[in-house]
Protein: Cytochrome b5 heme-binding domain-containing protein
Amino acid sequence: MGIYSTVMETVTEVTGLSPTAFFIILAMMVVVYNIVSGMFLGPEDFRQKPQKEPIQVGDITESELRAYDGSDPKKPLLIAIKGQIFDVSSSKMFYGRGGSYSMFTGRDASRALAMLSFKPEDLTGNLEGLSAEELGVLEDWESKFIEKYPVVGRVVPAPNSSENGEKVHIQDNDRNEKIES
Ligand code: HEM
Structure:
């Protein structure tokens, strides 16, 4: 006796149905299962969608960083802390236009975060005169950002400028004297 007829006989014996009726009912059950399960979310719907690969901006100055303040929707939202530039585009509700922390976007926010300040004059990478406690607060922010956001570049001082609050001396060759900018 072949396997086929053994299976058919067993189906009839166990279910009391003819093999044709059994397979029609089985096929209908599969169709109904697929329709009903399609109405619910599967585990893959709860998995985080793969993030777009962040764009590396490399070494840029504090003023170049300003272009990433959310005014151009095609550009990522960037914030620098202690010179490291983070892509914070995933938290658009905080840092996008109109977001509660959008004043930090496109800036090195180190000083403001260290001092827990929203003052525009504190939106700078200049850490001069900060207390040990404020520097500790800044370190906590830095760890939070490292954990949450990708680093996409570094803030570098503009050539011959006083960005980052650094004093730069420019040699004026004609008059042979130093001018402090
Ligand atoms: C009344 C005082 C404040 C309240 C009630 C408050 C509340 C919050 C809340 C609820 C969040 C969201 C937390 C989360 O979902 O991860 C948040 C995030 C944040 N807060 Fe505040 N905040 C306050 C003051 C400040 C100050 C003074 C600063 C800095 C100057 C600041 C900077 C931030 C930043 C940068 C984030 C976003 C962090 C991230 O990207 O995950 N906050 N705040």
